[in-house]
Amino acid sequence: MSVTNWVMEAIERSFNKGATIREIQRFIDEQHYEELAIFTIETELKSLLKKSRIKKSDDRYFKAEQTSKEDAFKKLFGE
What we know:
Blueprint lengths: L2 H10 L8 H12 L5 H13 L3 E4 L2 E4 L5 H9 L2
Antiparallel strand pairs: 1-2
C-alpha cells in the first residue's frame, strides 16, 4: 500500500470526527506497522488537499464529499 492509501484509510476510519496528524501517524503505526515521519504525512496531506480529496477544519482532516457525475460535468463544461 502507498502512503496515500494509508492516510486516506486513517481519515476514513475517524468516523466523521476528523483525524489529526498524530492520530493518522498512530493509526498507520498500529495498523500497518510503519513508522512514518510527520513530514511525510504532512506532505501527503498537502497533496490530498490540493487534489480536493480531503478537507481541513482547524487541525483535523476529513474526507471530502464525492462529486456526482452530473456535477462533475457541470463543473467541467459549465451548465
